[in-house]
Amino acid sequence: MSTDSTSSALSTAQLTFTPNIVSLSCALVLATIAIPSTVQAKTVNVTSPDKHINISLTDDNGRPEYQIQFNGKTVISPSKLGLVFQQLGELGTDFNIKHVTNSSVDQTWQQPWGERENIRDNYNRVVATLSNGKIDFDIEFKAFNDGIGFRYLVPKQAGLTNTPKLDITDELTEFAIPDPQHTTAWWIPGRGWNRYEYLYNTTSLDKIDRAHTPMTFRTADGVHLSIHEAALTDYAAMVLNQGRDGILHADLTPWSDGIRVKTQPGFSTPWRTIQIAKDAPGLLNSDLILNLNEPNKLGDVSWVQPGKYVGIWWGMHLNENTWGSGPKHGATTSETKRYMDFAAQYGFDGVLVEGWNEGWDGSWFENGDVFSFTQAYPDFDIDEVTEYGHSKNVRLIGHHETSGSVTNYRNQMSDAYDMYQKHGVTQVKTGYVADGGDIKRVDDNGIVRHEWHDGQFMVNEYLYSVTEAAKRGISINTHEPIKDTGLRRTYPNWIAREGARGQEYNAWGSPPNTPEHTAILPYTRMLAGPMDFTPGIFNLAPQGLDAVNRVKTTLTKQLALYVVLYSPIQMAADLPRNYVQRLDAFQFIQDVPTDWSESIALAGDIGDYVAFARKQRGAEDWYVGALTDEVPRKINLKLDFLTPGKRYEAQIYRDGAKADWLTNPYDYVIETKTVTAIETLDLSLAASGGTAIRLKAL
Ligand code: NOJ
Ligand code: CA
């Protein structure tokens, strides 16, 4: 739909647009103000609809800068804007604001699947055209109640007709944080060897060198902010690089030849985003990233199905099985059928099978070129397992590990997706593990190039796999992905991704995930979108409680993860035999849905704890997940999100009185009581414990 207003007319006329997509329910009101180029004072302000956030943009000394106030206090000090091109030099020095357009939008759109059904998109917008007399470019700001977004647009224009190619060598964007010594930041290192798979650092902001986004921080006044980006397509990812204390520079991940972005006139950058909230749950209740993405481009996406799966997976991480051939091969026909039986019996719709295809023998980390994506090992019969699955109403979930050899994958991609489609596979997990953190591609001249996971080349490559899969009714769950920037709105078959340290690290990571890890993820990685964390490990310490590698949570914290860490697809990650031993607790994993009509973050603090309530889509039941770090905690949970007057059976899965992740992780209690919206539940979480509740409407 078009929200652009004509910027030529000097008017405050109100125009009403009829939205042209079905999901829009509100009318839009736009106002246009053009500032004549003779006006000298060049400060442009835009305020959020609730007036708490103010952005001001100036062009003092021919240099565009912005700053942001929240409730009257500066949260972003004057910060540079602009882009540097190999062909043009800086767009940002000697540029003045020549023209400004304002508009406002208040609309509601629907997610085909998601953490909530209806999303309100309400903002005030300003587009400033800057010019040096020869070249124009635009900076567009949107102020929402939950934060801001801005981006650059370089339109096609007469001054660029002789410059068909534009190479960006730097982005000048800065985020200047006042008082970095007294600002606490939660961050992972930017551009490291291991993509996004790190434990989070909690430090004062001035200690950051280079950080990936979302990078979340809290000011001395308790304001919570998170810097990230939205709608990253055909551009390099932004990492934050702190040169001088408090000045975070948008450092674009380069191509192997050093260029940051290869583009042409008529492009726009991704949105640079800052979520702003008065408290930590406020960050979690924000839809800013999705609102800054384009609407669904795929049309009818009823074939994209949220759901739950089990898989031939954890056994490999525990070393009980191998991906490659041999006596411990996991992906055999008989083992797959056994998992399909288990899935059918307990209501799971899919079985993920890793290691069925040729290429895993030897050091697969380093040898992605030998993967075949169509040739199965002799002990895996894809016809037989998919027919068997069909008879049980359980789908095979496909898997493609590329080990970062993306040209080898690209060369086989259409055959591989065709083959899955033919076998009724509707979901594929992809993987881009790459030794040393680099991606290997072969360029048009046959030369091997090493690229970053988050450079422009890979940004495009990941999306290519998603759009190719969409043509065949397949959804993609990317591991070792490019970070999420909300593209699920535009491409709803990009159903989930990893992009952080997941459960697998508990099997072999040194160290495994800490008790606080899942109390940080909601406020950092999860602000970007769904994560395939793969929760639900019941045998928390297969090698004993004292072993280095074990899961550092209580059992009920594993259940709480299904509600806390949102994903439309959730794995029950443990081995079937461990579930069969604890069927009472397993009931929660069977019941919990993965598609919601509402989601509310009720309470929490970053790195300490979090509590979410979510309402099942198409039903009246609510689910609650609460978890804590290593500190035992009591939470008073007001049930005022429930429908007033209605009675619910609360099925509570909680830590027992002696539960403790370190010494006694299996002490849990399952109890039920009848509750209504006027009640409060007193939750008691053990050290690294959690509570999971189903509120079944009566
Ligand atoms: C890393 C993924 O995160 C994991 O889930 C998968 O099992 C391995 N790669 C092998 O593809
Ligand atoms: Ca991984």
Main attributes?
GH-type_carb-bd, hydrolase activity, binds 1-deoxynojirimycin, 3 domains, 698 residues, GH97_C, TIM Barrel, GH97_N, 10-stranded antiparallel sheet, 12 helices, 34% strand, 41 strands
Overall description:
The chain is α+β, with helices and mostly antiparallel strands. It folds into 3 domains: 15-291, Beta-galactosidase, Chain A, domain 5, CATH 2.70.98.10; 297-499, Alpha-Beta Barrel (TIM Barrel), CATH 3.20.20; 500-530 and 551-570 and 587-698, Aldolase class I (TIM Barrel), CATH 3.20.20. It is 15% helix and 34% strand. It contains 12 helices and 41 strands. The strands form 9 sheets. Strands 9, 10, 11, 12, 15, 16, 18, 19, 23 and 24 form a 10-stranded antiparallel sheet that branches. Strands 32-31-28-27-26-25-33 form a 7-stranded parallel sheet. Strand 5 (65-70) and strand 6 (73-80) form a beta hairpin. Helix 4 (333-346) packs parallel to helix 5. The protein is globular. Mean pLDDT is 94; it is low at 1-39. Bound molecules: 1-deoxynojirimycin and calcium ion. Residues 197, 479-480, 498, 504 line the site of calcium ion.
Q: Helical segment tally?
A: 12
Give the overall silhouette: globular
Task: Give the ligands present.
Answer: 1-deoxynojirimycin, calcium ion
* CATH-defined fold name of the largest domain: Beta-galactosidase, Chain A, domain 5
End-to-end span in angstroms?
A: 42 Å
* Secondary-structure content class: alpha+beta
GO molecular function, one term: hydrolase activity
Domain Glycosyl-hydrolase 97 catalytic: 313-500
Protein name: Glycoside hydrolase family 97 protein
Signal peptide: 1-41
